[in-house]
Amino acid sequence: MIRRIAVPPFEALDALLPPRGGADPATRETVARILDDVLRRGDDAVREYTSRFDGVDLAPAAWELDSAAWQGALDRINPTLRAALARAVDRVREYHQHQREDGFRLAGDDGSLVGMKVTPVDRVGLYVPGGKASYPSSVVMNAVPALVAGVQEIVAVVPPQGVTDLVLAACALSGVTRIFRIGGAQAVAALAFGTATVPRVDKIVGPGNRWVAEAKRQVTGQVGIDMIAGPTEILIIADGSALPTRVAADLIAQAEHDEDATGWCVTTEAGLADALPAALESALSRAPRGAIARAALQRNGLLVVVPTMREAIEVANRRAAEHVEILAEGAERIARGVRHAGAIFLGDHTPEPVGDYLAGPSHVLPTGGTARYASPLGVYDFVKRTTVIRYSPERLAADADAIIALAEAEGLYGHAEAVRMRVRIPV
Q: How far apart (Å, rounded) are the C-alpha atoms in residues 386 and 393?
């Protein structure tokens, strides 16, 4: 039920790597119309699309949840779950404190200065999806880094049909300041452009379906976004020390998200490759979400057999997966060769779910091969850097000839004159 190949040659992987290109034309065009309509008509357009797509007709005055109602969710949820959420928030906050930047100042003896000022964005929009499951952990992993960065307003949008108390409690613990009952591409548009009811934000984060992802893509430039999130994915590097039952469990843990999830196992051990299909069948037969996981593994699962760990590392780097587990001896040594991954999980006692919930780093990670150039969500995503420059008279005089020469070489004579007039260099 899981496809099996052997490499090298590595070209055998090419057809199995994430496809290039964005959304299909129909999705792009539909989303573009929604965005344009919300830009022009504001609340009226958001209300109309919410009624059409979500089956809920809410007047704009009813969109915002009273803060007492959702803060009260902390008292309504199971105390064990509340404690678990609080522990997750504490761990994520503690980890991300280490990502804070203070900027720098490089001062010269003559009083000149160059430096960098780091400032949080003012307002962040957090998209909280509905769909097949409720994900309070997603709220924590998106909102807490923004809170640590110093963002003053975190505006969440939640499904208009309603949201669980667990998600509301996560909002309360994670620093969310306002919640609106709107969803879909129209909610992204409202956050990006602002309406009479919904405030305009500076950055939009959080996962969503293909309509939400495409809306985020199209509003980039009006606002910042975290990333265009695709289906979840895992790649497991395993040697002869790995247990087939645990490899199977970890593949299913990701495959159960949805039918588009991807799970690869790359192994140097033929015996593991031979045993894994039966281990998967056994685990899937008992899994509550086994039908979803089975569909995902049949569609996007892959078992790659390689001769040595060197080739296993090369496969991982070509795939650039969201999650890379290393179930092998010398996991840290192997990890040093993995250049492209959203997150790396070292050793048999570090299954991927520890990162989803409690380890500390945000679980918002690059997907679809974008780990080649992208990073996990962090404090750095919620700040902007401003350069600061101060020249002394002596520094300007010393640099004037070079600045004037470069400006005139580019035909920008006004640039040259702005310097020349200050140092009184004859024309």
A: 23
What beta strand segments (E) does 53-108 contain? Answer: 104-107
| DSSP H or E segment with residue 367 | none
d(CA 8, CA 236): 18
- For the stretch 215-242, what's the b/e string if a residue is b when 16 or more beta carbons lie within 10 angstroms of its beta carbon? bbebbeebbbbbbbbbbbbbbbbbbeeb
Point out the domain boundary residue: 171, 206, 225: 225
Is residue 10 in some structural domain? no
Q: Considering the entire predicted model, what is its pTM?
A: 0.93
Is residue 113 assigned to a domain? no
**Pairing outcome for strands 383-390 and 113-120:** antiparallel
Residue 304 structure tokens: 């790659």
Residue positions annotated with a catalytic role: 322-323
CATH number at residue 345: 3.40.50.1980
Give the pair of three-digit tokens for residue 379: 């404090």
Do residues 5 and 12 lie in contact, with contact meaning Cβ atoms separated by under 8 Å?
yes
Summarize pLDDT for 73-122 with one digit per residue, the tens. 999 999 999 999 999 999 999 999 999 999 999 999 999 999 999 999 99
CA distance 158 to 127: 7
Here the tokens at position 207 are 């996962």
Contact status, residue 110 vs residue 395, Cβ threshold 8 Å: yes
pLDDT in tens, 272-322: 999 999 999 999 999 999 999 999 999 999 999 999 999 999 999 999 999
Ramachandran region, residue 368 (left: φ > 0; alpha: ψ -120 to 50; beta: rest):
left
* Same domain (yes/no): 275, 144: no
Task: List the domain range (segments joined by +) for residue 418.
Answer: 391-423
Q: Which helix (H) or strand (E) holds 127?
A: strand 123-127
HEC string of 205-246?
A: ECCCCHHHHHHHHHHECCEEECCCCCCCEEEEEECCCCCHHH
Q: Is the backbone peptide bond immediately before 9 cis, with ω within 30 degrees of 0?
A: yes
